Amino acid sequence: MNVLELHAVSRDHGAGAGLVHALAGIGLSVAAGEFVAVMGPSGSGKSTLLTLAGGLDAPTSGRVVIEGTDLGTLGRSGLSALRRRHVGYVFQDLNLIPGLTAIENVMLPRELDGAGTRRARREAALALREVGVDELADQFPDEMSGGQQQRVAIARALVGDRRLVLADEPTGALDSNTGEDVMRLLRARCDAGAACLMVTHESRHAAWSDRVVFLRDGRMVDTTGSRSGPETLLQDVR
Ligand SMILES: Nc1ncnc2c1ncn2[C@@H]1O[C@H](COP(=O)(O)OP(=O)(O)OP(=O)(O)O)[C@@H](O)[C@H]1O
Ligand SMILES: [Mg+2]
């Protein structure tokens, strides 16, 4: 069962001489339980791919399907309901809400989905514990280190058992030990049945995945099982 399918997905920005093909003709499926890493140089379209996969932006052409639903058939409210229910997102720039504490940030997607405050709080506390920062529950983002904020952002993506986890360089602000912990968490989520698509620049993080997809200039230039050695292919895309 594929949690995510991209069919011939393209995304253009601008027009005329300023036209940029941020993504061109991407076909990709991520099954339940599968962990896929996305690699490629800066500007190759990695963040664009994740934004489209999470329904935060619409493709110029092609189809994005999550849990069997073609996002192009949904109106705005249907799309945001599907996103809240199925998609956890760790943004490249975190996007924690500054006026909310850690636990409130993590509760928010569950409350928006109608979970009720008490249940949302219980689930958020569990997610914070899962990423090892339950003692930070009542702190505000500006009272935390970058690495702590990163973990809270990851807890927000995992809360409520969402089946599609999209992570854009989730280890960016973390030291290498904490980065490995994050990989272990994402791997465990996939082993428990989630589908995960993660952008990373680091081959040792890609090594936790089942498969690596390489982008260059908005095109998929290669895909490989991580065990066959991303390093050799990486030299090619760098
Ligand atoms: N809103 C936008 N308007 C115009 N161009 C855009 C927009 N968003 C992205 N692009 C362009 O699309 C291309 C892909 O950008 P994207 O952010 O997906 O790259 P990336 O692989 O995530 O890069 P990085 O590793 O630096 O995060 C780039 O050429 C970028 O300049
Ligand atoms: Mg990016």
**Average predicted confidence as pLDDT:** 89
Tell me the distance between the termini. 33 Å
Physical arrangement of strands within the biggest beta sheet: 6-7-8-3-9-10
Q: Characterize the largest beta sheet: strand count, sense, and whether it forms a barrel.
A: 6 strands, mixed
- Please state the second-level CATH architecture: 3-Layer(aba) Sandwich
Based on CA inertia axes, which overall geometry fits? globular
Ligands bound, unique: adenosine-5'-triphosphate, magnesium ion
CATH superfamily: P-loop containing nucleotide triphosphate hydrolases
Uncertain regions spanning at least 5 consecutive residues:
227-238
Radius of gyration: 17 Å
Tally of contiguous helical segments = 8
The multimeric state of the shown protein is single chain
Key descriptive features of the protein:
238 residues, alpha/beta, Rossmann fold, 4-stranded antiparallel beta sheet, 36% helix, globular, disordered C terminus, binds adenosine-5'-triphosphate, binds magnesium ion
Outline the secondary-structure elements:
Blueprint: E1 2-13, E2 20-31, E3 35-39, H1 46-53, E4 61-66, E5 69-70, H2 76-86, E6 87-90, H3 102-112, H4 117-130, H5 146-158, E7 164-168, H6 176-191, E8 195-199, H7 203-206, E9 211-216, E10 219-224, H8 230-237
Parallel strand pairs: 3-8, 3-9, 6-7, 7-8
Antiparallel strand pairs: 1-2, 1-4, 4-5, 9-10
Bound molecules: adenosine-5'-triphosphate and magnesium ion.
